Amino acid sequence: MLPKIPRIERRARGKITPEYEDSGLFKGGIVQVQLALVPVFGATSRGDCTARAFNAEGTDVTVIFAGRRRPHFQPLYSQLRYMYAQAQQADALRGAKMRDVNSIQLPVQCEGAWRARIERDERGQETRSMQFMVARWGFQGHDGRTLNYGTAARLPKSKRCKDPMFQ
């Protein structure tokens, strides 16, 4: 029989304010980075949306669209799915094997916070990966328009992004 473990006390969904949510998501302060997102998607155990991306150095990054920003993920998801379908069709017309999904990249200007994730495998070895908790993001749609999504992080003034593009 399992030992009795007390429940984790969490706030009811209606009681979570944007300030409370963002203070947990963006603990390290807000920065602006450009990432290349690829059409590889997932979800966290909390139901947040994720996408694979690469930073300027080519390092694999997981981008997380958490909390009240989840509904804003759909246009980005649709754009990446569109790009994947276009690449698939172009490769089929050429009679070529489908290209590596990591080569289908969408440049996205992101505002958010970095966090490192350390996982242990069954042998006890640690693997470090980078995650980017995104607050706002912008990209160029297939029609050439610049599209901006997300919501500004509500943090104390000392931790806000200084870039005028996102003011």
Write up this protein.
The model has no long low-confidence stretch (mean pLDDT 85). A hairpin with a 5-residue loop joins β2 and β3 (60-65). This protein has a five-stranded mixed β-barrel. The longest helix is centred in the middle third of the chain and has 21 residues, at 74-94. The chain has 167 residues and is α+β, with helices and mostly antiparallel strands. It has a single domain (30-153), classed as OB fold (Dihydrolipoamide Acetyltransferase, E2P) (Beta Barrel), CATH 2.40.50. Helix content is 17%, strand content 36%. It is globular. It has two helices and six strands; from the N terminus they run αβββαβββ.
Output the keywords:
single chain; 167 residues; alpha+beta; OB fold (Dihydrolipoamide Acetyltransferase, E2P); five-stranded mixed barrel; 2 helices; 36% strand
What is this structure, in a nutshell?
The protein is an alpha+beta fold and 167 residues long.
Number of helices: 2
Counted up, domains total 1
Based on the coordinates given, report the CATH architecture.
Beta Barrel
- Strand arrangement within the widest β-sheet reads 1-2-3-5-4
Give the amount of beta strand, in percent.
Answer: 35-45%
Compute the number of strand runs: 6
Largest sheet: 5 strands, mixed, barrel
CATH topology: OB fold (Dihydrolipoamide Acetyltransferase, E2P)
Oligomer: single chain
Helicity, as a percent range = 10-25%
SSE pattern: HEEEHEEE
Distance between the termini: 55 Å
The geometry reads as: globular
